[in-house]
Amino acid sequence: MIRKILFTLTAALLVSCSTGAQETGEGVLMGVQLRMVFDNEALIIDLYDNPTARDFLTLLPLTVTMEDYAAAEKITYLSRRLDTGRGGPGNTPSSGNFTYYAPWGNLAVFYRGQGSAGGLVILGTIRSGAERLGRMRNNFTAAIEVVE
């Protein structure tokens, strides 16, 4: 009986301890922020703690050419495919989602919601200003870096 109580107390204590990560509706934040700079604009992105986001960090800093896709997202193809861990059924993106689309190996940054997509991994979320991406009519260059 005492062992059961000690186990329960220990488990509760471990769950309540903070590791610096923060739970959100999409997952646990990693505590790392990215800056995406384009056309004299800067967006701040909070990364989620998942294998794909951690692998993406190894590519940074990165300069990419973004293009519009489906009037809802800006995409760019990465130099290599990212680790998606166990993968998953996919996600339904919303405005501000910073994602990786595993079937095509591209980064996709949403400025408008979209239907569910199998193989879509949400890497993070843009704090504010995702709509600025939608105003970019042509292909454009963006720099992505870790905020120090």
Automatic annotation (TrEMBL):
<protein>
    <recommendedName>
        <fullName>Cyclophilin-like domain-containing protein</fullName>
    </recommendedName>
</protein>
<feature type="signal peptide">
    <location>
        <begin position="1"/>
        <end position="21"/>
    </location>
</feature>
<dbReference type="InterPro" id="IPR029000">
    <property type="entry name" value="Cyclophilin-like_dom_sf"/>
</dbReference>
<dbReference type="Pfam" id="PF18050">
    <property type="entry name" value="Cyclophil_like2"/>
</dbReference>
<keyword id="KW-0732">Signal</keyword>
<dbReference type="InterPro" id="IPR041183">
    <property type="entry name" value="Cyclophilin-like"/>
</dbReference>
<feature type="domain" description="Cyclophilin-like">
    <location>
        <begin position="36"/>
        <end position="145"/>
    </location>
</feature>
